[in-house]
Amino acid sequence: MKKPTRKPAGDAAPTEIDPQVAALGFEEAVEQLEAIIERMERGEIALEDSLREYARGDSLVRRCRQILDQAEQRIEAISGQALDAGARPDAAEPPF
Q1: What's the rounded Cα separation, in Å, for the pair 68 and 74?
Q2: DSSP string of 6-27?
Q3: In the chain, where the domains are located
Q4: Does the domain formed by 24-84 have CATH 1.10.10?
Q5: Spatial distance between the Cα atoms of 33 and 64, rounded to a whole number of angstroms
Q6: Which positions ≥6 away from 38 have C-beta within 8 Å?
Q7: Most CB contacts within 10 A, which of 6, 26, 43, 72?
Q8: Which is more confidently placed, 16 or 67?
Q9: Cα within 13 Å of Cα(17), Cβ side
Q10: 55 within 8 A of 17, measured Cβ to Cβ
Q11: Residue/partner pairs of 69-77 with CB below 8 Å, 24 or more apart
Q12: What is the pTM of this model?
């Protein structure tokens, strides 16, 4: 049986996220990343597998950052709408 060929992790574009990882939510991505870190720290995986796991972990980290960036943009949009509606940024009371 022939093994499927894999593109080496170093050939991936820095901003490319694995399609399977791109479908994950933040909590799922963090959970998978923590599992990878635990396996690597315990030395449970061989070097080649470790390199693949490292590449997947890198993709998971980028996914988490992507989700956090999107959340930050949403917060800024909401804050901007509040300012446009007449809220003052120097108001004595917090908006929440």
Answers
A1: 10
A2: ---GGGS-TT---HHHHT--HH
A3: 24-84
A4: no
A5: 10
A6: none
A7: 26
A8: 67
A9: 15
A10: no
A11: none
A12: 0.67
Structural contact between residues 10 and 30, judged by C-beta atoms closer than 8 angstroms: no
What are the distances in angstroms from CA 40 to CA 28, 49, 57, 59?
19, 10, 11, 16
Backbone angles phi, psi at 84, to 5 degrees: -65, -30
The amino acid that residue 17 corresponds to is I
pLDDT tens track for 1-38: 444 444 444 444 456 888 999 999 999 999 999 999 99
Beta strands per DSSP E along the chain: none
Q: Which residues contact 53 (CB under 8 A, 6 or more apart)?
A: 36, 39, 40, 45
For residues 32 and 34, what is the distance between their CA atoms, to the nearest angstrom? Answer: 5
Q: Which two tokens stand for residue 85?
A: 């509606």
- At 29 the pLDDT is 97
> In one letter, which amino acid is 5?
T
